[in-house]
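Work through what follows:
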Amino acid sequence: MPRKSSRKTASKIFVLDTNVLMHDPTSLFRFEEHDVYLPIMTLEELDNHKRGMSEIARNARQVSRALDELLAFSDDIDGGISLVEPSHGLASGKLLLQTEAIHAELPPALPTSKYDNQILAVVIHLQRRHPKRQVILVSKDINMRIKARALGLPAEDYFNDQVLEDSDLLYAGSRALPADFWEKHGQGMESWKEDSKTRYRISGPLCPDFLLNEFVYLEGQPEFTAIVKEAVGKKAVLETLTDYSHPKHAVWGINARNREQNFALNLLMNPDIDFVTLLGQAGTGKTLLTLAAALTQVLESKRYSEIIVTRVTVPVGEDIGFLPGSEEEKMAPWMGALEDNLEVLTHSEESGGNHPSGNNHFSGEWSKAATHDLLRSRIKIKSLNFMRGRTFLRKFLILDEAQNLTPKQMKTLITRAGPGAKIVCLGNIAQIDTPYLTEGSSGLTYVVDRFKGWPHSGHITLQRGERSRLADHAAEVL
């Protein structure tokens, strides 16, 4: 589906598959001046999916309500329903509904009992009826698009919800400065101290490209790292960072092992940053750094009252069926990563010796168990299914595996934040398990792109794995 279209050419007819409507209930209004056609089988499939409390069922019901409102204001269904007013000017085409029985010839090998094949028959019929207009099938189902193309029918994916064409273009949160940076930007530079950090006001050709809370670094000995605090026109203010790789700045016994981890801890420990997104492959330290920062700010500085951990429950293999127990017990099998990282943190606390929580005089297994129980008492594991309607006050909310959320689910979750809350989204967009979600349309990609440059949010893409030489090698060669 093209993003921009020339109005000089004849408008196209887009035939929508059911999965497009269930993926994005507002897709009816996303085709600009082109007409949208709904086959009767699309409505039939919508009806089959409307029951239940899942996201798909809610979307199906939302589409049904939207269609009901459209039909209430239209007398001429055969001629098409104008989308100008319902879409508030977003779309200027018409909504066309199938109002007659269609008998298009399909190859004998395709059974007409299948909904998908009946939708393909509708596309063939429309091509014959409108030879001067382009008729295109829009579907999120790859097999459906392959079948359509095998029959010589134009078919496309639904692109409107894609934030980026290519995930390589996604904002990384950090930028390498050129070697001649100070020569071009250091003239007339001002510097001053503020809250034990040094700030530099610079001006030069790179300044218009800077985004607020973007990290910049200049390699060398010593390495220069800073965060962009202001960026207006050709002027910018850079602020030096806290060096979390130094043992005296350890966070719950954890130190940054590389540049990106140091950037991440500067975001996680900053009270002015309400929303943090961390991307990176397995083993880059996303969960460990976040949990260490959360425990420090909940148990030591008392900035937040408790930690809430949640994630999307999408199984990688076969589902193991219903799980017994309370909400927390049902979520426990999904929280293996949390348990693994807690084990690292309790161990680092014992071996650290001088940790301020005062547990170092305990010894052996009893100490470990007591520390673990103390930490668990301040960590609540919640299911995403029950987030609607809640408000989180002074909570540190960690959303793991955020790449499996749709943009709509992400909005539902982030709008739960109350005063004093901090939300951290962790994920790897190369590991999406949700059907029909891609790297370009994932909710995690969506929020990274939409929040960049906001003064109270920050993002960093972690590059280097710090798990083990085995894990690093596996990530490269497998």
In short: Residues 248-477 form a domain with the Rossmann fold fold (CATH 3.40.50.300).
